[in-house]
Amino acid sequence: MTSRMVAGTRIDLAEGDITRQDTDAIVNAANTTLLGGGGVDGAIHRAGGPSIVEECRRLGGCATGDAKLTGAGRLPARHVIHAVGPVYRDGRHGEAELLASAYRRSLEVAMTHGLRSVAFPSISTGAYRFPIAEAAAIALGTVAAVAAERQGALELVRFVLFSAADFAVYAQALAALPG
Ligand code: ADP
Question: pTM to 2 decimals?
Fold first, then answer.
């Protein structure tokens, strides 16, 4: 685990399973249907139980770069924020902007609901094949920008990385953040 304070928000990096986090919200790397998938999405629905997908069904999907909130079923977190990152093609299809938007919208949804601690997985870097070094810089840069804009609104943003290799990439990106 490593941490850094940015504009009054603690940014944590941890290696582990996001379904075990007891933050106010955990973020799901969802797809546009919001009806479940593999990877972290499958893990969240399995651990949280059927109430999450029941709520998702009523949301009518989610655009790429956007995020929507549900309850968290049996998970220790209070809410799940379902964010949709881009499928990476060649980097020339707005992938960077869409990934930044997925992080930004997730934090906006959290703050709108008065949530102060949020855990993220590494959105888009699994099945969606976004190169992880670039994705980590975008993820951390976006969190730092929102923290600076909204001083004190977010207490904790934690990235929960699923492997030691992914953790190392995020640790390097966190150290490289300006300030
Ligand atoms: P995407 O389709 O957005 O790429 P994936 O779920 O395929 O989403 O992968 C996103 C990241 O989540 C990958 O780094 C994957 O290893 C990781 N991951 C998978 N399961 C978990 C979990 N239980 N907790 C945290 N991260 C996970």
Answer: 0.98
